[in-house]
Amino acid sequence: MERWVRVFLLSGVLLAGCAHRGPEDISIPQSEREAGGIIVPEVERREIKPPKIDAENFEVGAFFGIMSIEDFGTNPLYGVQFAYHIAEDLFVEAAVGRTEAGLSSIEELANVRVTENRDFTYYNISFGYNFLPGEIFLGRNTAMNSALYLIGGIGGTRFAQEDKFTVNFGIGARVLATDWLALHLDFRDHIFATDLLGSNKATNNLEAHIGITVFF
Amino acid sequence: MRWLPLLALLLYCLTAGQARAEEKYVHAVVADPYIELHTGPGRGYPVFHVVERGGAIEILKRRTDWFKVRTEDHREGWVDRNQMLRTLQPDGEPMVFNDGSREAFTEHRWEAGVLAGDFGGASVISIYGALAFNSQLSVELGASHVLGEFSNSYLGTLGLTHVFVPEWRASPFFTLGTGIIHTEPSVTLGQSQDRTDQVGYVGGGVRVYITRRFMFRAEYRSYVVFTSRNDNEEIDEWRGGFAFFF
Question: CB 3.0-4.6 Å disulfide test: which of A102, A107, B57, B237 passes with B221?
Fold first, then answer.
């Protein structure tokens, strides 16, 4: 009798053990078991990709004009410019320009030369602000977008084998012949100090140029 | 008639190129009640057309915050960014633009900027570019033009920059590096010849996120110029400027 009771109890324990182990035999994903049997939906996060749109915020081009170097006459000027349009109203421009210095009055009268190297080269980095945007009308059927801009910045000028810290400011007009082709008319003053003709003084060097640029 | 096949080929190339070019434009669907098409990329240009909800547009190009779009009936005009953000991509997802953000500022990989300031009493204008290894450490390459009353110098530097807390909007950094300085004494003073020396520098500064892809940066550097003379020269530099990251 005692033996039967023992067998009964043991089988009961075994069955309980089996019953306990039972559900584990069914394959349940690890994630579900961890969540206490509640089904957790595995949502795949979709990466939202910004579409590739052709952004034309850069502008590059060349300019030609005249530059009046204080005491050294007025001469033709040429250069290149590069701009990045930050916002509708604001842009940054880097430019390099080159001209040649003529003879100052003292050099002509006394037949001396203050410098043999007559090259005048400048570079600058400026901020521009588009104010007065508008349109220019050519006849009845053509309208071209335009803007007047105020521009100013800093840079260096190499003249008579010396580099001078230069501040520039001015005003310009940009007319867009097409979406990507622009014409510029620009007036600029470049101010730097020099002691080339004796005492150290600030000089105003005025520039006027027309430029042609493309947006890309 | 020998040129006829050539002409046909040319025509085919042109049309094929055009077909391909048209295919590459991004499409969008208007989700707002309507979007406005301006005649130019600016807030003042008049609105000449609207596209109603459900209308399809092609995005041809972008200039600053204005998008040139083409409607189904082939009208072309400029739509501003705020309205474009409320259109849908063809798969129904909302339109997104990769315009930079605080998160991108923390994690950015490339950085370039322009700085100006004072270099031992002379004016300095610098450009620099940086490549980040992670959000804290980056390698920087810089070029400076020092414009003084008695001499001009060209300075090229290479260094490491460590940003302490990149998550902050204004995050301080530490910098260390080396470089080469080439100095040309003023001609009018009739001084000694040009000289080229090695430099080492240590410094610190702060970079401040402004908006989109832009940041302000200000820093101090202490340079030691290893001259061939008996004593080394020490120069303090202060400068500030703007940079953009991508």
Answer: B237
Cβ contacts of A179 on chain B, cutoff 8 Å: 61, 63, 68
Instruction: Report B:104-143 residues touching A (Cβ under 8 A).
Output: 114, 116, 122-123, 125
pTM over 0.90: no
Q: Are residues B124 and B231 in the same domain?
A: yes
Domain boundary among B50, B66, B97: B97
In one letter, which amino acid is A191?
Answer: I
Residue among A51, A154, A162 minimizing CB distance to B125: A154
The CATH code belonging to domain A58-215 is 2.40.160.20
Residues B85 and B138 in one domain: no
CB–CB of B214 and A145 under 8 A? no
Is B79 within 8 Å of B62 (Cβ atoms)? no
User: Which of B39, B62, B188 has its CB closest to that of A55?
Assistant: B62
The pLDDT tens digits for A130-172 are 988 999 999 998 889 999 999 999 999 999 888 999 999 999 9
Residue A180 Cα distances to A61, A161, A214, angstroms: 11, 38, 5
One digit per residue, the tens of pLDDT, for chain B of length 246 reads 555 566 565 555 555 544 444 557 888 989 889 999 999 999 999 999 999 998 999 999 999 999 999 999 999 999 999 999 889 988 888 888 888 888 889 989 999 999 999 999 999 999 999 999 999 999 999 999 999 988 899 999 999 999 999 999 999 999 999 999 999 887 766 657 788 999 999 999 999 999 888 999 999 999 999 987 778 889 999 999 999 998
Cβ-defined contact of B45 to A145 (cutoff 8 Å): yes
Query: Three-class SS string for B133-187?
Result: CCCCEEEEEEEEEEECCCEEEEEEEEEEEEECCCCCCEEEEEEEEEEEEEEEECC
> Where in chain A does DSSP place strands (E)?
58-68, 74-85, 90-100, 119-138, 142-159, 162-176, 181-194, 201-215
User: Where in the sequence is the domain holding B160, given as residue range(s)?
Assistant: 103-245
**Sheet strand arrangement including B66-71:** B47-52, B34-38, B76-80, B66-71, B56-63, B26-30, B87-88
Instruction: Write down the domain spans for chain A.
Output: 58-215
CA A163 – CA B125 distance, rounded (Å)? 12
| Ranges assigned E (strand) in B12-136 | 26-30, 34-38, 47-52, 56-63, 66-71, 76-80, 87-88, 110-119, 122-132
**Closest chain B residue to A130 measured between Cα atoms?**
B42
Half-sphere CA count of B246, side-chain side, radius 13 A: 6
User: 117-136 in A: which are within 8 Å (CB) of B?
Assistant: 125, 133-135
